[in-house]
Amino acid sequence: MHRLLPALLLGTMLASPVPAQVAKPTANFAAPVKTFGRVSYDARSLMIDGQRQIIWGGEFHPFRLPSPDLWRDILQKMKASGFNTVALYFDWGYHSPKQGVYDFTGIRDLDRLLTMAEEEGLYVITRAGPYVNAELSRGGFPGWLVNQRGRARTDDPDYIKAVDEWLGHVNPIIARHQIDADKTRKGGVILHQIENELALTTPAQRRYMDHLYARARADGITVPIFHNDQSRNGYWTPKSSKVEKVVPGPVDMYAFDGYPGGTCTVTGQPTRDVAAPNWGYYGPGGAKGGASASPDTPGLLAEFGGGWFDYWGSNGGYDCNAIQRGKRFQRVFYGTNLANGIGIQSFYMTYGGTSWGWLPGPVVFTSYDYGAAISEPRALREKAQEMKQLAGLIASVPDLAGMVPAGPVDISSPDIQIYHNKSPDSDARFLMVTHKPSNGQTNDAFTFTADLPDGRYTVPMQLHGFDAKWLVAGVTLGGQRLVYSTSELQNAQRQDGKDLLLLYGRAGEPGETVLRYTSAPKITLLEGKATTRFDPAKGDLTLRYAHQNRAIVRIEGGGRPPLTLILADEAEGTRYWRHGDALIRGPELVRSATAKGSALALTGDTAAPSPLEIWAPAAIRAITWNGTRIATRATPTGSLTATQPLPGPAPVTLPALTDWRIAKGSPEADPAFDDSAWQAIDARPSASITQRPDGQPNMGMDAYGFHDGDVWYRGRFTGTPDAKTLSLYYGAGGSGLVQAWIDGQFLGEAETPSGLPRPITTGTARFALPASAQGGEHVLSVMVRNNGHNWDLDSDDFHKETRGLISASLEAPGGRSFTIPIAWKIQGRQGGENLPDVARGAANNGGLHGERMGWHLPGYNDAGWAKATVPTSQSAPGTSWYRTSFDLAVPKGQDATIGLSFGDATTPRSPVRYRVLIFVNGWNMGQFIAHVGPQRTFPIPEGILNHRGKNHIALAVTSDGAPGDALEAVRLVTLHNVKGGVPVRMVSAPAAPSDLKQEK
């Protein structure tokens, strides 16, 4: 193909020019600056300390990583990958198991989290709810709020009182960490969101929003406040917006979200059926046009798709999603946003993590990997490397912030479009080159002609497949003047008055860079190949080269400081890390570079033996890597290079899981089981939106203080000839479960449907009763597994749909229902809303007998249990508990993520039916549903898992007892292994049943 390119280029140069993108007047560039202490903005951009900024953010949920020492790992990876901002959801329900009870310690220590972000030099966008959605059970509302009859997300007095409880705790924490709290602070909170995707705009919602804004200000939050508008409705804009059909509200800035980009096929192949939308300067405008809904404020995407969530019963989409919304997608879609003046972008998610325990809502399973730039096991994906390159341009060219449309350029091909923006202050240019439409995948050679700051130029270009190029022209980089380049800029730094530039392009493509000098400079080719030509009339030095590994050119004289110019292909470019005044090449990750005197201390990770090369100020003569002195030598390129590769990690040796023990876990099915301490089902008031049959009691689990996981019911009745069928109506969330017994005899089970992106979360089940039920006294036992409460995305109280049993009837076919009285009792999580295990919190446990007895805890004495073999082919109906222990010896100084895998991990589902709650050292790290899938491997973060010592696993295996429906092979697997990492301590939590708080 490359041999055809000269001919193609000639043909396109002879073609008629095609105009580029044309902007529309969607922004009011005359709008006044609004100032909030150190943070300010106008229609063009956000400003911090008066300096225009592009906010390049990523979403991270600390509640989805229950090992606080690893929060720093994620923040460091974000910073090293070029993000300057982290967006943080706070989950109200994660902190409040009971009304009036709040916890901000341990894994819930938000003060510690925000301090870490400041220490790592990251700006913070706080998103504290009250409602967050986030695919959480109840959308982040606490369990106890389900029992509140007042409508949520309105000005209902009871709801407002509950909201004020939460805000009274979380807002002051946020306020302490605002960038204004310390004038020297280099990170901290710069923006605050008061509600999320509030899609109703009645007066009740407006009064509610007024209250949230006033409360934030009263609690000391002084930074600009916004709401995140779901899918660009023009809802909750600042009052200054005069755009027709917007809904103004009590906010300072307008923000919205979007998840364009299409989906993978059912066979796991990415698609490119969707072009990038124009939601700003180049879009349709109006209330639903995105940033155009608020002409006086800068474009703010509070969430833009950095992946997508996956659901019970899918084929497993995260790996494909990482490609679908990964490399190239990011260039095309994020670049289109930037060209449209959306200078505040946060990518959801950047680290997705784990919806451990009972955190997940019905629409997701345990893994919340999301296809994000940082995978659930905390590995940097290929897309993170591309984000680093794009962010390098943003960091190197401050003039990109606050650009406005510069007018169209002429393009020789109708298949290409170019967004052309400029800085009103410096006239620097940004040219975003992509296909027309942007999801085009052709191979094109073309030219564009533009009036640039340094003259009119015709620039030769190539674009192959689905791609975009972020080009800058007419920019001053340190002491250099870049006229234009067909390569993309990744880095520009000054060291000792000299300049260091890194440009890159697609492997094999030609590159052309033009620099401006007052006279002919001296050119020295230090490495690779490149040709140069100087035009004395213009002062243009033109370099031509192929992007192949790297070339290094030194340019001296010509009226400018010395320049070292690195010309790399894309893969080579990803090997460079920018930290302060240093540019480092080689390792898997460089976390930090700290200069002290003549020494430069580097920290980071290696995934294999790695070279190390550093460009640093001349004063630096000694290098350490993770505390170890590294022997280096000077190179002709001006760098220091290690004389030996940095060592990579040793393999992690994992033990086989043996010595299993087993205990029966459903004693509640036994008619002789003592349920005297259980609560009686009665007709107490209900806040549920689920209509139950007339005259029936309130059987919903939430009404009795049980909000998560499994709940048991026992009902006593006197048999009659009509007692032939047990008919149940139940709510169980996504892929939830109900099992039923009579007098200890298993009747069967039913499940809510799987394989649906928006699952049906209630169901009915009918079980035939034995003839013995038609006379005498009997005991029914029913277990319901609640796989999450619904979200409240549409502000309709959907989170209040009943969980547990809704109704139960004994009846004969064709006969009347509810004619046979049943006296029911209910039992769920030990203590209900009064948590025995405060450290692990409400999400950790439900109401299985083994959980109530502490069988999941590492210190439980299982010596009396029977020995068992895993895998097994037979299981009793109900739940059986398996326990084992093992030792790990991960080499010191290594960071690994170890997971637990079930059965054949290459397939999304098993042919056998059973489900497992996975407890590791007492922590509920997820649920495996063999026949539903798709998740079969469960990462366990260090701090939960003891990497250098004893560990305990407890598996609560629930089956229908049919042949084969039993636990498959269980093994440990290494999912991520590098030499480096951050120090991690074990998370403190109760170890034995005696450590739990006792009910009073």
What does this 3D model show about the protein?
This protein has 1000 residues and is mostly beta strands. The protein is built from eleven helices and 58 strands.
The total of beta strands comes to: 58
Largest sheet: 8 strands, parallel, barrel
Rg result: 31 Å
Strand order of the largest sheet: 6-7-8-9-10-13-14-15
DSSP summary: helix tally: 11
Q: What global shape is seen? A: globular
Distance between the termini: 78 Å
Oligomer: single chain
The average pLDDT value, as a whole number, equals 96
How much helix, percentage-wise, in residues? 10-25%
| Structure classification | mainly beta
Residue fraction in strands: 35-45%
Low-confidence spans:
1-15
SSE blueprint:
Blueprint: H1 5-14, E1 18-19, E2 34-36, E3 39-41, E4 46-48, E5 51-53, E6 55-60, H2 69-80, E7 85-89, H3 92-95, H4 110-119, E8 123-127, H5 157-176, E9 188-196, H6 203-218, E10 225-229, E11 235-237, E12 247-248, E13 253-258, E14 300-305, H7 318-324, H8 329-339, E15 344-351, H9 382-396, E16 404-405, E17 410-411, E18 416-422, E19 429-435, E20 443-452, E21 455-464, E22 468-477, E23 480-485, E24 488-495, E25 498-505, E26 510-516, E27 522-527, E28 531-535, E29 540-546, E30 550-557, E31 560-569, H10 570-573, E32 576-579, E33 582-585, E34 589-596, E35 599-605, E36 613-615, E37 622-625, E38 628-630, E39 632-634, E40 640-642, E41 660-664, E42 679-680, E43 709-718, E44 725-731, E45 737-742, E46 745-751, E47 762-768, E48 777-786, E49 804-811, E50 823-827, H11 849-853, E51 866-868, E52 878-889, E53 894-902, E54 914-920, E55 923-929, E56 937-940, E57 948-959, E58 970-979
Parallel strand pairs: 6-7, 6-15, 7-8, 8-9, 9-10, 10-13, 11-12, 13-14, 14-15, 25-31, 35-37
Antiparallel strand pairs: 1-17, 2-3, 3-4, 4-5, 16-18, 17-20, 18-19, 19-22, 20-21, 22-23, 23-26, 24-25, 26-29, 27-30, 28-29, 30-31, 32-33, 33-36, 34-35, 36-40, 37-38, 39-40, 41-51, 41-52, 42-50, 43-48, 43-50, 44-47, 44-49, 45-46, 45-48, 52-57, 53-56, 53-58, 54-55, 54-57
Helix pairs in contact: 5-6
